[in-house]
Design brief:
Elements (H helix, E strand, L loop, with lengths): L30 E2 L2 E4 L3 H12 L4 E4 L15 E2 L7 H8 L1 H25 L6 E9 L2 H17 L3 E4 L10 E10 L2 H14 L3 E3 L4 E7 L2 E6 L4 E3 L2 E4 L16 E13 L7 E4 L5 E8 L2 E12 L7 H14 L2 E15 L5 E4 L7 E5 L5 H16 L7 H4 L8 H23 L13 E7 L2 E7 L5 E4 L11 E3 L4 E3 L6 E3 L4 E3 L11
Parallel strand pairs: 1-11, 2-3, 2-12, 3-8, 5-14, 12-19
Antiparallel strand pairs: 4-7, 5-7, 6-7, 9-10, 10-11, 13-16, 13-17, 14-15, 15-16, 18-19, 20-21, 21-22, 23-24, 24-25, 25-26
Helix pairs in contact: 1-5, 1-7, 2-3, 2-4, 3-7
Organism: Niallia endozanthoxylica
Keywords: 2Fe-2S, Disulfide bond, Iron, Iron-sulfur, Metal-binding
GO molecular function, one term: monooxygenase activity
């Protein structure tokens, strides 16, 4: 643990990543496999496990360490209750597609539960009711509409006028018998089974491009090695290969925050998330016989808004008021991608490239959507029918009116940040930075990003994002440079943390 007191941990660390995971070598030669999977999160590991079970030769390429990205920084709710969604899906797509979406998530919940029971995986799995709640009249009415949608779709739900916390609410809606677990304990077992069956995992291996020869994909790594395969699954969060799909304009990135505490008050069980602003999410996980409470929220578009530490402070204040803090154990943040129509993209990356498959845009519900993606893509490769293929197809038509409005809004915002970053006045000089302080500065007459580490060493980079040229902003909560346009993120010395970019920032000596 990073703290043993009431004070905020100095650096972010996810509780899930306390466990040890198998380590793998970096790719150092050209290889050929049936299926190459880029990205070692819940989708990549689950898809690899399923395909290996069917006897295929599979390799997983991971730029960093497996299960170290969004999957390792989740709140790990295994639920079909994805906020306010079903009334909206019925309005935009009709009851049939809304029901398919529910069934896909419910099917993933049952898949995870059954696999845990079958393999006797010790991963703190527990069935819990899930709740959405509203603190305003406007959103209370939306919850009532959502309850009507539950009824129309045959979802087991119940309206409530209170929840067992010191929170004044107007309305709540529960979905019965959902679940929570320790995601890395669960996925560690799948990864070990995959390796034992002959599956290949290469860590520290960054995929940068895909070449095709007679419809045979060849993945090119940063070190120049090639992985030849029949099919590619891109489960790298943002697709690293996006030459024709224009995914950067069809999704937008959001950051959110989690603190983990031991509380003064007893936790009543269940999983909770508010539907009005500011978002608050609550669940617990058992640690040495005691509940560790995970409180999340504070969503905002990447690279935008106030100092990121204020988001942790807001969660801390909410938790102190609601539960009381006995020990502030962990804090971490994560990034999620949201498609304009709120449905994930799962399937061929474009109609012209059927052998390059993508899974992205889970809208913060990656435990179920990520599992759905793994099963759907495995079925696609194995040429099996899957009822969710059309619903999640990346080439589906965007007929919903809100999609067009959101597209205009998001891309106007990008244009604004592109211009603002170039014109920004920067009075700060890097020589004025204290230890563990970062800022955009003027250096040798140009805009730069400077961070002085805890040992006093100065790290200076060009803040121009290598994706499409927006200027990155300093994120002190995570010590990263974040792009406000499409969500690329870099370490303080310029290495890529998050796509869509796959090129580091230029270092300035």
């Amino acid at each position: 643990m990073t703290a043993s007191s009431h004070s905020m941990p100095q650096f972010p660390e996810s509780y899930w990543q306390e466990i040890s995971l198998p380590s793998s070598d970096t790719l150092t030669k050209d290889i050929s496999v049936d299926v190459a999977i880029v990205g070692g999160g819940i989708t990549g590991i689950t898809a690899g496990y399923l395909l290996k079970k069917e006897g295929l030769n599979v390799a997983i390429l991971e730029a960093g360490k497996v299960l170290n990205g969004t999957t390792g920084h989740t709140t790990a709710k295994v639920t079909a209750q994805h906020g306010l969604i079903y009334d909206e899906l019925i309005a935009h797509f009709g009851e049939e597609k809304a029901k398919l979406y529910y069934q896909s998530a419910d099917n993933s919940l049952r898949f995870i539960k059954n696999l845990i029971q079958e393999k006797n995986i010790d991963c703190d799995f527990s069935e819990e009711d899930a709740y959405i709640y509203a603190t305003t009249d406007e959103y209370a009415n939306k919850i009532k509409k959502e309850a009507e949608a539950y009824k129309n779709l045959g979802i087991n739900g119940e309206l409530h006028t209170s929840i067992p916390f010191d929170i004044s609410i107007k309305q709540a809606l529960s979905m019965k018998r959902q679940a929570q677990f320790h995601p890395l304990k669960y996925l560690k077992q799948l990864a070990l089974d995959f390796i034992e069956a002959g599956g290949l995992i290469y860590e520290g291996t960054t995929a940068t491009d895909i070449e095709e020869e007679n419809d045979i994909p060849k993945i090119i790594t940063r070190d120049g090695y090639k992985v030849t395969c029949k099919q590619v699954i891109i489960s790298s969060h943002f697709p690293f290969f996006d030459k024709e799909g224009m995914y950067f304009a069809r999704m937008y990135p959001e950051r959110s925050y989690v603190i983990a505490v031991k509380a003064e008050k007893e936790y009543p069980g269940g999983m909770y998330v508010s539907v009005d602003s500011p978002i608050r999410s609550l669940r617990y996980t058992p640690v040495n016989g005691e509940p560790l409470i995970l409180i999340g929220g504070e969503n905002h578009q990447t690279g935008q808004g106030p100092d990121t530490l204020t988001h942790y402070q807001e969660l801390e204040a909410f938790t102190e008021k609601t539960l009381g803090i006995k020990e502030y154990a962990y804090r971490w943040s994560t990034q999620d991608l949201i498609t304009l129509d709120k449905l994930p993209f799962i399937g061929p990356i474009t109609a012209q490239k059927p052998n390059i498959l993508v899974a992205t845009g889970y809208r913060k519900w990656g435990m179920t959507n990520g599992t759905t993606a793994a099963m759907l893509l495995a079925d696609t490769i194995l040429e099996k029918d899957n009822p969710y293929q059309d619903l999640f197809s990346p080439t589906r038509p965007n007929k919903a009116d809100p999609t067009i409005k959101k597209f205009i809004s998001i891309n106007a915002d990008v244009a604004g940040h592109l211009l603002k970053g170039k014109l920004q006045y920067l009075p700060k000089d890097p020589s004025h930075l204290q230890n563990d302080e970062g800022a955009a500065v003027m250096f040798n007459g140009e805009r730069a990003g400077a961070y002085r580490d805890q040992d006093g060493k100065l790290h200076i980079v060009d803040t121009t994002c290598t994706h499409l040229g927006c200027e990155c902003e300093w994120n002190h909560g995570d010590r990263t440079w974040d792009c406000p346009c499409h969500g690329s993120r870099y370490s303080y010395d310029g290495e890529v943390v998050e796509g869509p970019t796959n090129k580091p920032l230029r270092r300035i000596e």
